[in-house]
Amino acid sequence: QVRLVESGGGLVEAGGSLRLSCIASGSIRQITNMGWYRQAPGKERELVATKPLTLDPTYGGSVLGRFTVSRDIAKNTVYLQMNRLKPEDTAVYYCRAFLSTYSADFKTYWGQGTQVTVSS
Fold first, then answer.
1. Dist. CA 107–CA 45, nearest whole Å
2. What is the pLDDT along the chain (120 residues), one digit of tens a residue?
3. Is residue 49 within 8 Å of 56, Cβ to Cβ?
4. Which residues, 6 or more positions from 50, have their beta carbon under 8 angstroms from its beta carbon?
5. By CB distance 3.0 to 4.6 Å, which of 45, 77, 110, 114 could disulfide with 9?
């Protein structure tokens, strides 16, 4: 069974920084894409940043230049460094991975989410 566990969320003042981590565990064969989405109250879930295995990362327009996504392939981990945070970045941040296991083909998995709150 695959699990994605996020950590690093919390409360920070506007202009501050946070670093999120997400570790995938289970009988994982390959993770082709891993990244972050977020959902604010009353809004749809949106892309924050994803990092494919061999391609350049993709960022949502509102975080470009402030957030950086990176992966540790050997550790099945994805990170999100968030700088110059704004109150509008307040949301639940979800880890997402597109992966295969030794018993199943590729599909999408989600973590439980971690709350990020930015105070003005």
1. 18
2. 999 999 999 999 999 999 999 999 999 999 999 999 999 999 999 999 999 999 999 999 899 999 999 999 999 999 999 999 999 999 999 999 999 999 999 999 999 999 999 999
3. no
4. 33, 34, 35, 36, 57, 58, 69, 96
5. 114
